[in-house]
């Protein structure tokens, strides 16, 4: 794993922004599939535009077409039946069932605490707010080559805790059906409907509705380049939780950190995606060299070593900072999705760091625990957006309605100021609406 020591090169690395989705070139295999399906060489954005336009016009027929053309799956019934969900319980290994139940309990507890600490309805002095849950939300769960029951729990549970009336999940089938473990997770999270629909077509279906898939108020969840571009395209017609790119982890380690654990945390994210970003910052050159060697040693043992190696070689780096202060400034500048503190007195570091999707404190709080069972959602801001964005929370499923309930006394105290401002803006009808009341006119 490459080691960066010079200040100029180090700062250049942490300040660089990842390529936008529009800039990403499709892998040759995917590009060939696009050419076959659409009869032309299209960019990811062009693919998404065509798929969304087709779903808007043809509804369910388009969903079946893209399931067959892009996923290689013949889907006759788009919605998974209650019987299939019930049957899933018996086909999941008991130890995995117990693990999912443990994760469910932790995620529920965390988001209930979050709701208790969150925004409240209030009314005072003629003003206030109403905090209410969304009516219906759509959750996208990646699938196809792999199964992600954790994503079901991490997205649907906070929606349920917020009080959302109806939660629907769209996920591509695997080998002709939705994996039982995903269906079990949907049952544990009290999902109302599961649809065998994937990719950009699923986002369009939830945004506009089809004969089978209901229109939602907000679309949430991770996904590939086509899914994220589709979320970006439908934003404004429905809400979205964010545009999540490839995963990233920044390990901030001091000279006392365990090299094997540092390497393990870096590779845990590297195995996600060839475009993942495994990065470490330390003040210790000795540790940097030891971690680099550990990464090479552990890579050889991974089942997904080819994917992880591409991420390590493409986006990975170990930066040697000149001081703890510089290390923290670089971490804040990078604003990672996951910030792992493998340092003594992690709490002291936490108070001085401001930009991260999640902070993972010490050796016993690895990011991998957060992915599955710690409690907070693993859907987090990427690509430096942690400077202004937050992880998926229960608040994503609430909306605030302002309330103005001014009594006569409050109106007569504030009305003249409002009328004066209205006239200053040249909006005389606004002013007259106020003055008529102030003057007692009918």
Describe the structure.
The longest helix has 24 residues, at about 95-115. The chain has helices spanning about 5-15, 30-40, 45-60, 60-70, 80-90, 95-115, 150-160, 180-190, 200-210, 225-235, 260-270, 285-300, 305-315, 325-335, 345-350, 365-370, 410-425, 430-440, and strands spanning about 5, 120-125, 125-135, 135-140, 165-170, 195, 220, 240, 250-255, 275-280, 315-320, 340, 360, 400-405. The strands form 3 sheets. The chain has a 6-stranded parallel β-sheet with strand order 1-11-10-9-12-13, with helices on both faces. The protein has a 5-stranded parallel β-sheet with strand order 6-5-4-7-8, with helices on both faces. It contains 18 helices and 14 strands. About 50% of the residues lie in helices and about 15% in strands. The chain has about 450 residues and is of the alpha/beta class. The termini are far apart. Helix 5 packs across helix 8 (about 180-190) and helix 11 (about 260-270) crosses helix 13 (about 305-315).
